Amino acid sequence: MKENDKEKIIMPHPKTAEALIKCAGPIECSLLPRLLHVTEAAAIAASYQMGRGDKNYADQVSVEAMRRMLNCLDMKGIIKIGEGERDEAPMLFIGEEVGTGEGDLEVDIAVDPLEGTNLAADGIPGAIAVMAMAEREGLFHGPDIYMDKIVVGPEVVKYEKAHPDERIDLDAPVIRNLEIVSKAFNRNIDELVVVILDRQRHKDKIKEIRETGARVNLISDGDLMPGIATAIRGSGIHMVLGAGGSGEAVLTAAAMKILGGKMLARLVLPTVANGGTAEEIEKEKAEKMPRLETMGITEENINDVLDIEKLAPGKDIIFSATGVTPGILLKGVSLFGEGDARVHSITMGSSGVVKFTDTIYIHDKEKTPLRMA
């Protein structure tokens, strides 16, 4: 018998890619590849203003680029979290309709065309262009106030399932939550890193973290990517704490739902978070509560704790972030001249597929040939 005539031995293999791709919903299948182009365009636009000291103009050009790209997509999109209310923002305001209006996809959108405007303006690491989409009502329609939050990765979620009496709690002392995280990672508390915004309102929280022995990473702006980094091994970040923008919190929740992490949050008025006087708090309530009540947020429920299922209830969520300046997970934009650029992004969808993408835009391959990194 010839060698070729022998019965072939079939070696089975796991069909991971095929299985995950089959799980992708219509939004992920149709819009996620294009969503990458949207954040890339916004990041490149912002990168030309990097280090020029004008955060408002850097934000403006990224908003304009993101809006132009969004309006090329065949969808019926509504901005749920954007640049502000209609009277506060000329573009990508809350309630603005974007997309061509063609096709069957109806999506809610959360955008931050330039997360870390100060970072970009001053050339400091951590600025990104970021957005998420989901089916209608798939993202929390949060008001433009703060959210106090705690973010941890999937290792902690796994530990909680095995130890149902030990759970991360937004109202628990920091030491209690760090003890759970330390057990989940099988590390000592003094080996853990907690990221928190460097704000006066966090003075007591920072002191509390340090008293546990944990290490504190103070950042000036942009705690969205550090939150996502808690779900990625090797990032060196184990927890994110503190009050920041509600829009950034919802974007973080969208990614963390896909990555299997945990996030708890609570809406809080800026005057309350920043320790304002009773008179200042009452003034802000009078200004903002009527608007909040139209969203179903009242003085009775504003203190409710929101988990990932409330912040990102969608079943077909997609997320994309592109680095503007170098950061924890993403490289910054590299400009080659004449509009050519190299950008680094992370994209993901509810199927569970996560991609780190290194994209190069070159007009003339003869003048600017591709090179190995």
From TrEMBL:
<dbReference type="GO" id="GO:0005829">
    <property type="term" value="C:cytosol"/>
</dbReference>
<comment type="similarity">
    <text>Belongs to the FBPase class 2 family.</text>
</comment>
<protein>
    <recommendedName>
        <fullName>Fructose-1,6-bisphosphatase</fullName>
    </recommendedName>
</protein>
<dbReference type="Pfam" id="PF03320">
    <property type="entry name" value="FBPase_glpX"/>
</dbReference>
<dbReference type="GO" id="GO:0006071">
    <property type="term" value="P:glycerol metabolic process"/>
</dbReference>
<dbReference type="InterPro" id="IPR004464">
    <property type="entry name" value="FBPase_class-2/SBPase"/>
</dbReference>
<keyword id="KW-0464">Manganese</keyword>
<keyword id="KW-0378">Hydrolase</keyword>
<dbReference type="GO" id="GO:0046872">
    <property type="term" value="F:metal ion binding"/>
</dbReference>
<dbReference type="GO" id="GO:0006094">
    <property type="term" value="P:gluconeogenesis"/>
</dbReference>
<dbReference type="GO" id="GO:0042132">
    <property type="term" value="F:fructose 1,6-bisphosphate 1-phosphatase activity"/>
</dbReference>
<keyword id="KW-0119">Carbohydrate metabolism</keyword>
<keyword id="KW-0479">Metal-binding</keyword>
<dbReference type="GO" id="GO:0030388">
    <property type="term" value="P:fructose 1,6-bisphosphate metabolic process"/>
</dbReference>
